[in-house]
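README, section 4: Worked example with a bound small molecule

Sections 1 through 3 covered apo chains. Here we extend the same pipeline to holo records, where the ligand is supplied as SMILES alongside the sequence. The molecule in this example is flavin mononucleotide. Nothing else about the input changes; the structure line simply encodes the ligand pose together with the chain.
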Amino acid sequence: MSVSVLGISGSMRYPSETGEAVEVALRGAERAGAHTQYLDLSRIELPFCDGRSDEDSYPESVQAFRGLIRSAHGIILGTPEYHNSMTGALKNALDLCSGADFEHKMVGLIGVAGGAISAVNAINHLRIVMRSVGAWVVPHQVSIANTDAALRRINEETDSPMHERLLKLGGDVAKFSKLIVAGIIDVSGMEEV
Ligand SMILES: Cc1cc2nc3c(=O)[nH]c(=O)nc-3n(C[C@H](O)[C@H](O)[C@H](O)COP(=O)(O)O)c2cc1C
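The generated complex, written as structure tokens:
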């Protein structure tokens, strides 16, 4: 059974360290048999969410973005740590989505921090946002500190522990997505009430 996993980088820098990390995780999803797609938020133009009730009146870029999320079985979200949280760009993109877009999807989280303390705050905030839209976040997560040096190592040493963690994250999202798609994990009736 094939599932699709969408990787999203929430950095507006191009190229970005977050994007590199998300792409490694997508390779893990591919190894677990998933079709993958990568979306770089810096490459699309999304307006600010203004809370309008007529969501169909947002520009086509919003409909296309939400369509990508809806059509994926699993999603990997990556964010740089910005002032102990996710980027405003990623939060805005998620605000443009509703529970119907994310509900019952498996999600894996990656945080990338320039500093030594790593990106656990950004990841924890993302986990809370994902709960709000009814997604299932896998327990395994990847928080990368000191990104400059860390990512060079991740890319050069494909057997490094962090490279392995990223591959495992993608693999976990693909594997759990398959369980939902096959009905082995029955999520019907588990919608937020
Ligand atoms: C506005 C802003 C806030 C930041 N805040 C933090 C922070 O709280 N902790 C940290 O370790 N790094 C922080 N950084 C550094 C980024 O996390 C780091 O440069 C990251 O690798 C950027 O990822 P990217 O290449 O994917 O954009 C901040 C950078 C910016 C621009």
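What to look for in the output: The longest strand covers residues 136-144. The chain is about 45% helix and 20% strand.

Section 5 describes how to batch many such records.
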